[in-house]
Amino acid sequence: MPTSTNYTKRPSLPGRATDLPASPNRGSGPAPMPRVADWFAWLGGLGLGASAAFALSQDSLHSVTSMAGFLDAVGRLSGMVGTYLLLVMLLLMARIPWLERTIGQDRLTRWHRRIGAWPVVLITMHVVTLLFGYAATAKTNVVNQAVTFIQHYPDMLMAFVGFGLLLLATTFSIPQVRRRLRYETWWTIHLAFYFAVALSFAHQIRTGIIFLGHPMTVALWTRVFVGVAAVLVISRIVRPMLANLRYRLRVTSVEEVSPGVFAIVMRGHHLERLNVSGGQYFQWRFLAPGLLIHSHPYSLSALPNPPHLRMTVKSLGDQSSALAHLRPGTRVFIEGPYGVFTRHQISTPAVTLIGAGVGVTPLRALLEDLPHDVAVTVLLRASTPEDLVHADEVRALVKQRQGTFHTLLGPRQRARLDRNTLNKLAPRVRDSDVYICGPEGFNDDVAKAATSLGVPNTRIHQEEFSF
Amino acid sequence: MTTRRTPMVVLGAVIGLVAIGSFHASPAALAMTTTAPAPTSRSAPTPTKQSTTTPSAPTTSSTPAAPSAVRSQTGSTVNYNYGMLAVSVTVQGKTITNISVPSLNDGGNSYSQSLDSMSIPILTKEAMAAQSAHIQSVSGASYTSAGFIQSLQSALTALGI
Q1: How many domains does chain B have?
Q2: In which domain, by residue range, is B55 found?
Q3: Per-residue confidence (pLDDT) for residue B137, from 0 to 100
Q4: ipTM value greater than 0.85
Q5: Is-contact B54 B47, C-beta < 8 A?
């Protein structure tokens, strides 16, 4: 049941610290850098080919004709390529700023998951083939050979422990297993990957035939490892720490703006230096019981209004209900901003913003950040009028821009945003960039409706709030 | 967008493979460091303990290339990464009659020792059969093999074979 709004009522903006209107000097964080992402892609490919070539360089045609020689060659190749892919997976999750603002974390995560199974398969292959290959040469059984490796080869015990950690961490990352775990449990076990990679390094350069007697290769490979470690430490530990020393955020108020939805306003220092685009999110960590250990992603629900910052969350899980009880004065650590759900994706003179429930939050901030000459249509869906989050603010912002604003109220089955409804409420949708934020099912439905109306995929931008 | 960068990754991988592959193709042999060029010379060869055919020490040195003279030569000592070895060869005329490893130091690593004791007899047999150093390395013992071949070749070269 779509209901149009014709701005009869003067919008009453919540009198909190994040008052409108947007000042021109906030928002619009740095633009994506597709070239840099291209370079990363090239470099990633080059490294993959080079790793394989280094592993193969020790084999001649006749050395692989015997069974043992063949197993050794396969073992070397799978070990090198598997390790390389593990390093790539770490880098994909290293929050490298250029990649984050260009590709976006959800797609980086998708690549991370797509590579996912390969390292463990290859490294298992490495272990198995070398055990059998060496056992065949030494004319002994595999168990004896494993004992020999651990006793007599340098750093092999560490390598075996690392392999064990790799198997463990991978087991708990299989989607079917992971689904049964609490996020925190999975996260903690996932840390084992770092240890697995670190523990494996010494045996590579001290027993690997491609490294022994090749100081240049050792130097190169060591640099690769040190480089990856440096990127991880800098981008996941040092930079966030420096940023938080600068911003020093504390909670000032928590307010229930819709049933079960809370706006959390924080106060900090130097927030004008927070280079954030509307629609982006941060990883938030509150120094409060039950919230300290893990950070969680939430969008800003308004552009920063120094010295204030606001985000809006729905109390879904344990985590977000704990957020509802935050006390003023609680310290807040942030990491970010992340996300490509921003004005930088716009390729047409019109945008259509479509949100459901608490999914309105990034749209609300994005709306503030859109270029002035862009024609705006906003559609919000909720079960009841009370469930419309920040609707007054959105309405005011749309009015300011002389755009179109519609709400769609009712139970999910009846008030659907299908092809016809979309076409009726947003006639310009086919000529616009479409930003969708809601639960997964909602996003899929709306994206399908937009596609069927002729919107190309490159102009459909989605963000899911149920991470 | 996802598919847009896939060709870059694939093409990058091919370039990396070819570049490193061709760079490494020529020096594919193990990088051996000859630490001690064999002190043995044609004039004063070290008689090896297995040189059963050596009638007397000066035989080798003073033989002015008699066609059927028995000569011995120890090749250069090679550092094969897990230790040092030197191969000694005895020839009668142009025929290799004996090959031995008088100097072997595998750093006290028992696995390395077992690998050496397994591979050296095979290498010796192969070299005797081939009557040259052009033999295949024993898989799993590629370092020992490469060191053995290099030292043997240096001995044969010194003998002019």
Answers
A1: 1
A2: 29-158
A3: 74
A4: no
A5: yes
